[in-house]
Amino acid sequence: MGKKAVCLISGGMDSAVASAIAKKEGYEIHALTFNYGQRNRKEIESAKKIAEWLGGKHKIIDVNLRQIGGSALTDEIEVPEEAHGIPLTYVPARNTIFLSFALAYAEVIDADSIFIGVNSVDYSGYPDCRPEYIEAFQKMANLALKRSVEGRPIKIKTPLLYFSKAEIVKKGYEMHVPFEKTWSCYRERERACGKCPSCKLRIEAFKEAGVRDPIEYE
Amino acid sequence: MGKKAVCLISGGMDSAVASAIAKKEGYEIHALTFNYGQRNRKEIESAKKIAEWLGGKHKIIDVNLRQIGGSALTDEIEVPEEAHGIPLTYVPARNTIFLSFALAYAEVIDADSIFIGVNSVDYSGYPDCRPEYIEAFQKMANLALKRSVEGRPIKIKTPLLYFSKAEIVKKGYEMHVPFEKTWSCYRERERACGKCPSCKLRIEAFKEAGVRDPIEYE
Predict the structure, then answer these.
(1) Considering the domain boundaries, does residue A206 fall inside one?
(2) What is the CATH number of the domain that holds B140?
(3) Chain B: closest CA distance from residue A210 (Å)
(4) Which pLDDT value is given to residue B123?
(5) Has residue B137 been placed in a domain?
């Protein structure tokens, strides 16, 4: 039996590319997506399409973070076009919550790795995308689980941690990642707005990578 | 305005005593209970009664860990009477998931502490009750949040970490913790079974503390 990886799939580009890397490395893919009460439902539809492309299993977990609140992504707060410092789209402890569930799931299905598409270069100011955060999460995970106590820790893999957004696009392009199935826009519309901080980052990345972005913008 | 604490309340003795300590230290109590798909519904009823006794707010968060599985507490696995090593009642990454939600909630309500009733002396073999785990979680938390980046980390407080079960009983007794409202039994019955590992620990603790256990056993 092949080695298994839990791949966190958000519906965006980064997690699609990170998971494609896991697949290329020979892992049996167990995609995990969170239905966390995000206002943007397109993300989940995109996640399904990407998981299907990856092959393997896909689990969608309901974890309603609206019960907690505190973010423009879950609450009725308008997503601003300009971001300064830590943006309003920050969701308190989101990666910590998602990675915790991924740890539990990995332990249950006996996977030895978790792939997450965080990147710290062109990151949006989220504290839980930084290398020092991932390193600290790994150390905590090494003490948290039955598996770890038994000497079989679960590795948090972040292949895109030091990639620029343009490098992520190039890497995905090489691996034929279906970027047309990904969704980056913070807004939920027929087509991406092209104006929110997430669209801007994406457009800039494709431009710099010299790759055509297959999605349409308003 | 007083300082706020998020107190994780399970319905058991330890979290009741830990929260009573938070109250005694002058915190405004924001109790947090997880409806995680535990087969034992009595725990949540007990948690409500304890939160009411504490005063302050009580939030019950739905986080269905049955979606993940892997434990006798959520799945249809019989809870064994004898426990060796890490027991079947171990829930993968449970404290990590609960503490992650507590972090998010603390950040949203602007609480500077989280109280959790873990203890490592008479603990049941759960890896996520050990001091080294809590220490690692704290370090991770210090990097995960907007608050931490802003220099206002959230402190994970574990006042019972080095208490024996008997000392927990004594401490609770001194503070008039209503032990009759707590529920420790792994089974869901009218009265506690008195035979499961959790009942055994409790009975032993009251005996050693020289305090009468106000609940009835079968």
Answers:
(1) no
(2) 3.40.50.620
(3) 34
(4) 61
(5) yes
